[in-house]
Amino acid sequence: MTNEKEITYGVRFSEPALINLILNSLEAYSVLHKNKPKGKEIRTRLETFGHLFGHIVEIDEEHKIFHVDFVNTDTSSKQNTNSVSYNEHAALLKRDAVRSFWPSYQYLGDYHTHPYEHFKKVEEIKGFHLSPGDRKEFSSNNSFWKKVEHRLSLLISIGYMDRAGTREPQYIGKGYNCIEFTLGNYRLWLSAYYSYLKKGKLVFSEDESEQIYIDCPSLVGFFWDHAPFGRVRVTQRKTEYNGKD
Asked: How far apart are CA 15 and CA 17, in angstroms?
């Protein structure tokens, strides 16, 4: 949680963290929720909400990386098709438990999902961006998010396709903070936002901010180096790596 300045933020995931994000999103989207009352209310395509824990790597003063080590989904949140209400007590409990008994991990922030009936709707309205409601809720509960030291927010958007797709994972938008990928006939988008202080109030970064990027080798391969990297030089007698330092 910092004031806005020219800092670049990277986001990386452990393999279990990425798997949990995907599995939780798929379950909320397409498994019948038996705890929802029967009747007209839809019991699939529900939003879900959870928390991100990990550590921060400081490459230098202007480049930091959020490493998401594990993800925890709230079982006490109230889920609907177009909203999810989190429980502050659950967030505080989990933040304090991790800080007390697993101090190598930090509370990084939250994630939630945007479920859509069809993937074309996501593309049409850019549903892989935070909604005005998401931003309004975050702004209205500033004191809580400051208390837990919120830094990072992830959004998983999901829609079904008429048939299984083969499109390769790709970045969406002008920056690198949103990755589109396909699992069978599910189309998903993973978007990242950092939070910062603006006039004393915690706010989210812009939808296609170029100050935050997702580096996820599991989806897009090794895309770039985070710090200067030397080069290998080959002569007739040897092949040798020359470092940058």
From this structure: 5
Q: What does the alpha-carbon distance between residue 36 and residue 29 come to, in Å, rounded to a whole number?
A: 14
- Please report, in angstroms and rounded to a whole number, the separation of the first and last CA atoms in the chain: 31
Q: Write down how long the chain is.
A: 245
Residues 6+ apart with CB under 8 A from 237: none
Q: Are strands 63-73 and 8-13 parallel, antiparallel or unpaired?
A: parallel
At 35 the pLDDT is 66
CA 177 remoteness from chain centre: 9
Tens digits of residue pLDDT in 116-155? 999 999 999 999 999 999 999 999 899 999 999 999 999 9
Nearest Cα to Cα of residue 51 among 145, 117, 129, 184: 145
pTM over 0.85: yes
Helix (H, G, I), strand (E, B) or coil at 29: helix
How many other CB atoms sit within 10 Å of the CB of residue 226? 14
User: Which amino acid is present at 121?
Assistant: K
Averaged confidence pLDDT in the chain: 90
How far apart, in whole angstroms, are the C-alpha atoms of residue 179 and residue 39?
36
The pLDDT of residue 4 is 58
7: helix, coil or strand? coil
pLDDT at 151: 96
Exposure of 166 in the CB half-sphere (CA atoms within 13 A): 0
State the Cα–Cα distance between residues 28 and 111, nearest whole angstrom. Answer: 13
Residues 6+ away with beta carbon under 8 Å from 35: none
Cα-only R_g, the chain: 19
Q: What residues of the chain score a pLDDT lower than 70? A: 1-5, 35-42, 244-245
